[in-house]
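User: For a reading group we're discussing how well predicted structures match intuition. Take Peptide ABC transporter substrate-binding protein. Before you show the prediction, I'll give you the sequence so everyone sees exactly what went in.
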Amino acid sequence: MKKRVLFLAALAVLMMAVPAMAIKAGGEAVVSYKEDVVTLDPAIGYDWQNWSIIKSLNARLMTYEAGTAKLVTDMAEDFTVSPDGLTYVFTLKKGVKFHNGREVKAGDVVYSLTRVVEPKTQSPAQGFYHSIKGYDDLVAGKTAELAGVTAPDDYTVKVELTSPDATVLHVLALNFSSVVPKEAVEKWGDDFGHHPVGAGAFKLAEWKLGQYLTMVRNPDYFVAGLPYLDKITIQIGLEPSVALLKLQRGEVDILGDSIPAARFVKIMQDPEWSKQVVSGSDLQTGYITMNVKMKPFDDVRVRQAVNMAVNKDRIVKMINNRAIPANQPLPPTMPGYDKAYKGYAFDVAKAKALLAEAGLADGFETELYCMNVDPNPRIAQSIQRDLAEIGIKVNIKSQSQGTVIAAGGEPDQAPMIWSGGMAWIADFPDPSNFYGPILGCGGAVKGGWNWSWYCNDEVEAMANKADAMSDPAKQADREKLWMETFIKIMDDAPWVPVFNETRFNMHSKNVSGDKKAFIDPVHIPFNYSYIYSNAVQ
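Assistant: Thanks. Here is the predicted 3D structure of Peptide ABC transporter substrate-binding protein, as structure tokens, for the group to look at:
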């Protein structure tokens, strides 16, 4: 997600267990972030701050069982799949209401999915829906409809595909597939992202840009007993170190930006405060992108040299060994990860030789963008020192998350980006999600997340073939093909995979929740529905 993502860490697994007693609803919580929330439009929002907020404000046809990556129905009552894998028919639950009080109908699903795909929305997720019938015509502007999504009646949605797609149910569980009312989108126009209307567990109550936003319980939410909290306040503009102090004083309940790196060891060694930390692994990789459309990164030898020059072990030590070095885009727990692949060894001499072979024996000057939240600027400085050893002078551009994301979405603005703070956490637990949006041709568009602007037709064909293998009996073959796809990408070296982290989230003594609340793999970074107040227990 996302996404969207901040600096996370990994050492021990400490978790607060949810009491066996029934949890009482009520109470409030305060969440801190340094950066502002850019948008709450589910068709557009795709970063760390807004991902779990958007998920809490909205509902979709599908979702995941809390705390797991198991697909289950959300506002759909059930669904069927045709024998050829090309037609999915969903029956909607009756009585599901938008926050404006209107019942959700099948036509709203058709409108919402069409809206994500139509070009004027400029959704970064557009490419996820490529297998739906009519996608190409809608993207090309030949029609205003997504032919493969129809509503035979008010409570039935039919989704037709042009080819089998192993990821389609995952895509329908994404934030981008959230169902929104057409009348609200048309009322607010481009400002809908600041006046969202969904059908989720919480609804937006107030938003003062740059200061705070509040969500309150949706009394009409269709999932009985949820959410637990009456109100959540998202405070904006708090430096992580200040937020930690406020949490320890009881003024903040959840650190949205996690534990400051400089305080991590002290917190984990503290017998009291360490109890307030919940940790667990994510499907995550932190990486450096190189824009293959900008010289000299259009030369694969230059990109391979950069891969050999970055000292990943030193970067991991900088963060108190709270990660493991990465050698490929996929994290180790993702299907398709190649355990035998060694990647590019740290080899300064060979890196220099490759630069010389590329006609750059004297090096060159470039820019490295990074998010301005610690420890990302320090990691960028480490990368800067490493590349200086092979003659590359790196100017660091440490900026807000939104600014870096925007720069990456321009074809000729950011030569290099350190993804920390925005590093990729899987939107859904499938290797396809580590390809399409961040390494595939569909993501190499203005406003997209493929910041390397890498697009290889051979690789694209391999990925499309893998995604078409929807038969569970062919899962092993599919994983093998994805493995070959990502190693082919590493031959082209559009990235420097740096490390895989584990997430540590800290909360105050005022609130509680188990991993469903604080380390849910798809409600990044939090599943707000399952956080509860100790004051009312």
